[in-house]
Predict the structure.
Amino acid sequence: MGAAFCTGCGRPPAACGGCARPSDPWRYCPDCGRWLAVQVTPTGWVGRCRGCGAEHHGSHQPPAGGAPVTG
Amino acid sequence: MSGVATDRHGDDPISAARRALVDERRQLTLDELAALAALPDEDVPALAEAAHAVRVAWCGDTVEIEGILSAKTGGCPEDCHFCSQSSRFETPVKALPLLSDDEVLRAARETAELGASEFCIVYAVRGPDERLMAHLERLVPLVRREVGINVAVSAGILTEDQAARLRGVGVHRYNHNLETARSFFGRVVTTHTWEERFETCRLVREHGMELCCGVLLGMGETDEQRIELLGQLREVDPAEVPVNFLDPRPGTPLADRPLVAAMEAIRWIALFRLALPGVILRYAGGREVTLGDLQEMGMTAGINALITGNYLTTLGRSPQEDIVMLKGLKMPIGTLSKVI
Ligand code: SF4
Ligand SMILES: [Zn+2]
Ligand SMILES: [Zn+2]
């Protein structure tokens, strides 16, 4: 199932085809489109949604050509 | 080699620079550096090779690894036009509260496990207030004791008293970037002056901390201004110079600037080494997006340290990729200090 909202700008897919960059953690919640409170550390990042309470995690930039390491 | 002019020894300017720095241990003049900056692109590999020889002659082959942590993200009152943490711009990076001691300790342990010898704790502030000073006076000894890693701090503009207090609690290095040349600074920051930054750099050294003083290339400064910056870095005489390349941040005034071209980045890494032969020259933010597959070439163009893993608000590549790269280059990981 694809994300309901763009993690780069928080807009629905009809408005944004995906502007998130590999060098950025998610900034918006894919579930509700609200802004995430994001803490980056050397080994990863965590984003807590102010809207639905979901917590999203990731690690680093994907290797060149690889899929983003996020979840 | 291209048909560049020769000097009185019959050398081309790259060989002359190498001889001055390796054989004679003589620093290059800013005019000599400007001449190297003007060489055509096809000379960049030879320039990089000379810079690598200078790095090995002055600093050896050891590479120092550091991890950095944003312990207070966003909401900064300053207006540095490249920064997503300024409260003056509409960016997706919003203010977060100060991290707890436990959160910082966890990140420090994870950083040490990556093979890093230096852990830099960074605060998005103009300078420390008394609450932040009290936090640092508690936290820095705690991290040193519990994790056994060198602790660096970056918390903006310092007063004399604050510099003395940070030294007193064991801050190994203090980071305060000049970012760019004095003549360009006013174009990218209006809420504080270049001179204020210079003064904090001076205080850091005066109070016995190692100075980490970085730059950010690609904001629209000219080659002449980069040479000017090299002269100004020599004046502040840092132990370490992190080299950042602009990764244009959405919502900031520099959002639409192009990336520095990869070969131009290699040229300037080499020129920084040739200008500052004994410093710890560190790969910092923007290296992945700017250099891509050429990151290994930077390691043989003068770089002898890196920030591994993620940055303050953006992601780096996996630390494992750096370890594999260093193994392939046969460069040992260890601690460094400035060569006089
Ligand atoms: S002082 Fe530091 S955190 Fe604040 S806007 Fe400037 S670069 Fe960003
Ligand atoms: Zn988008
Ligand atoms: Zn949500």
Notes: The two ends of chain B are 32 Å apart (CA to CA). The first helix of chain B runs from residue 13 to 23. Residues A 6, 8-9, 11, 16, 18-19 surround zinc ion (ligand 2) (CB under 6 Å). Strands of chain B lie at 64-72, 118-123, 150-154, 173-175, 210-212, 215-217, 240-245, 280-283, 305-307.
